[in-house]
Amino acid sequence: QVQLVESGGGLVQPGGSLRLSCAASNGPLDDYTIAWFRQAPGREREVVSCSLNNGDDAKYASSVKDRFTVFRDKAKNTVYLQMNSLKTEDTAVYFCAADRATPYDCISWEYDYWGQGTQITVSS
């Protein structure tokens, strides 16, 4: 089964940028629908973005649309989440998740494979 490892988290000031990576092993990421989730302390996990394995345009939560971009690097078997104009409310642990399915709605889909998460803290 595919294994996912996130990296790229850290501390950033409001208005700054970060790029998260989700590297896969034991399988080509192109076969998988990939989602990014986040969970802030005391809050439920929420989906940030999802990218279907059929090449359709990625989808984004309204809270991050026009600020976050997800893209794939097939050669590196890695999916990235580029986060710009970060806000304090973006502070959370971010997870990538994968599934072999091609769901109609990748935002609400339940994913089979998960990474361990990486912490993002947006603070001045």
Distance N to C terminus: 40 Å
CA radius of gyration is 13 Å
Largest sheet, in brief, is: 7 strands, mixed
**Can you count the helices?**
0
Order of helices and strands: EEEEEEEEEEE
| Strand-residue proportion | over 45%
Describe the structure.
With 124 residues, the chain is an all-beta fold. Helices cover 0% and strands 47% of the residues. It is built from no helices and 11 strands. The strands form 2 sheets. Strands 2, 4, 5, 6, 9, 10 and 11 form a 7-stranded mixed beta sheet that branches. The chain has a 4-stranded antiparallel beta sheet with strand order 1-3-8-7, with no helix packed on it. A hairpin with a 6-residue loop joins strand 4 (33-39) and strand 5. The N and C termini lie far apart (40 Å). The mean pLDDT is 95.
Keywords:
124 residues; mainly beta; 7-stranded mixed beta sheet
Write the layout of secondary structure elements.
Layout: E1 3-7, E2 10-12, E3 18-25, E4 33-39, E5 46-51, E6 59-60, E7 68-73, E8 78-83, E9 92-99, E10 113-114, E11 118-122
Describe this structure in a few short sentences.
This protein has 124 residues and is mainly beta.
